[in-house]
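Re: Re: ligand-bound prediction request (bumping)

Still looking for help on this. To restate: I need the protein modeled with PPE bound, output as structure tokens. Inputs repeated here so nobody has to scroll up.
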Amino acid sequence: MLEPVEKIWMDGKLVPWADANVHILTHSLHYGLAAFEGIRCYKGQSGSAIFRLQEHVDRLFDSAHIGMMEMPYDRKQIADAIVETVRANRLDACYIRPLVYIGYGAMGVHPGNNPIRIAIAAWRWGAYLGDEALANGMRARVSSFTRHHVNVSMTRGKISGYYVNSILAKREAKVDGYDEAIMLDPEGYVSEGTGENIFIVRRGMLKTTPLTSILEGITRSSVMELARERNIPVVEERFTRDEMYVADEVFVTGTAAELTPVREIDNRRIGTGKPGPVTLALQKAFFAIVRGEDPAHQAWLTRV
Ligand code: PPE
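Reply:
Sorry for the wait, this slipped through. Here it is.
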């Protein structure tokens, strides 16, 4: 259950958590065209910091642009509003959820001139797939649901409606006793998790899905950069489900999921069945940076 905090930013104002409501005829609620972000703020040695704020704001604007939603604020205003929301709630570590949506006005698929509205909420959120998964790895299954074809969903956008596909896959996996679903693209190659990008490691080399069928994850690009700095080769190349089965290591990345090892896929043990050395090294590097314990990549952190 979500634990309420004090305020939510809505269209330029901080409103009490309980009053952050919309009309039932809000266009996005019916047809799913809205854009969102997921951002984390971490508590560090020298205060709290938001991880890669500018990249998340840029992606929010890109998603809105793809969805033809004209942003009523500029990037700086949105970045400032995100910081303001964290501060107003006196949160030292949290997850931040900006949402751009089409408001009340006309109904019908054509949104006409309905207002574009923006809300920014923040709440405390622990390990997305659980502490156990973060430490020892999770169990995943390949979904019976296919990821979107690139001309069905423009995957550069983090658009609310696309997540119906993720919900179906996630529910199916959970009901069957797995932690997460991995979806294949319409050609049968691995694409991504319901809310994470995926990496495999084989013979010391890292491989991840190319950007064609997936969300351009900010954690993904951060981890690729950290790997290259540590002389771990990284390629963006399509791979198949059996390539995952025989990988030495598999892990997923996402703002919510952070860097979570995968210890089993489709009831097949991955590698030793425990998080491998490459996964552990990158996980450690990632957490050191987000917590401000590593002087590298200070530019990725925005102090609050
Ligand atoms: N793929 C998908 C489909 C996805 O939703 C996410 C983030 C990623 C990859 C990783 O992107 P990034 O966060 O930039 O590294 N999923 C968000 C929503 C999770 C949710 O359940 O809500 C997130 O992690 O914030």
